Amino acid sequence: MKRNATAVWNGSGKEGNGHLTTESTVLDKKQYSYASRFENGTGTNPEELIAAAHAGCFSMKLSFVLGAAGFTADEITTECGVTLDNGSITKSELTMRAKVPGIDEAKFKECAEEAKANCPVSKLLNCEITLDAALV
To answer: Containing domain of residue 115, as a range?
Structure first.
């Protein structure tokens, strides 16, 4: 399976601007710029998209890991913060809360750590990955 996206950039790094489009058109010429990436400008940025991808991938992987262990989550909510420092992504911080009937804390933590280590986006990222996981 292969997924595609296109980035178009016009102009210099600081004064220019661009747009992002995904194959599914969920992103359809969505604006990004220096201001949206390094300041508080309007538009998206690569780090925000990586954070969304990591949160989504981890949540789905955890669902599969829980299922293999005989549990089904009522809900998994994951937030992700990606840190860009000196031109490199240095950290991805996952904060997850889940409602999983019948699971004990130890098994839950084991499943969460397995999902963190083995979701495809975690495997892709070359940075520190932290996880704050809790049952609610």
So the answer is: 46-135
Q: In what order do the strands lie in the sheet with 5-10?
A: 5-10, 17-22, 30-33
pLDDT, tens digit, for every residue of 63-77? 999 999 999 999 999
Same domain, yes or no: 108 and 69: yes
Q: How would you classify residue 11: left for phi > 0, otherwise alpha for psi between -120 and 50, otherwise beta?
A: left
Phi, psi of 5, rounded to the nearest 5 degrees: -145, 160
Q: What is the pLDDT of residue 38?
A: 93
- 13, 60: one domain: no
Which CATH number is 76's domain given? 3.30.300.20
Asked if 68 and 42 count as a contact pair (C-beta separation under 8 A), the reply is no
